[in-house]
Design brief:
It is a single chain. The protein folds into two domains: 40 residues, no CATH class; 40 residues. The N and C termini lie far apart (72 Å). The chain has one helix and four strands, in the order E-E-E-E-H. By secondary structure, the chain is an alpha+beta fold. It has a four-stranded antiparallel β-sheet. The protein binds zinc ion.
């Protein structure tokens, strides 16, 4: 019963190496990131989704406040000259 051999996993969503897979036979949700497999559940998936979205928005906002010079070094205010 616990054998995974005949479990037919369903890919719920995927893009490149990032996939979310569901196994109806044992009810497990898995996030596949390249070689990494993360066992999860619906609640964690929902949480992860909102956390990722929030991070995306925050990161975009931070990038918008940076000078558009492509300079990734820490900002040095004062003592410019
Ligand atoms: Zn399974």
């Amino acid at each position: 019963m616990n054998s995974n051999k005949h479990h037919k996993k369903i890919c719920l969503s995927g893009n490149g190496d990032c996939r979310v897979v569901f196994c109806p036979d044992c009810g497990t949700l898995e996030i596949n990131l390249g070689e990494h497999k993360i066992r999860t559940n619906y609640e964690s998936l929902h949480l992860l989704s909102s956390v990722l979205n929030h991070a995306k928005v925050q990161f975009a906002q931070i990038q918008n406040t940076l000078p558009a010079t492509g300079n990734t070094q820490p900002m040095r205010l004062g003592r410019v000259h």
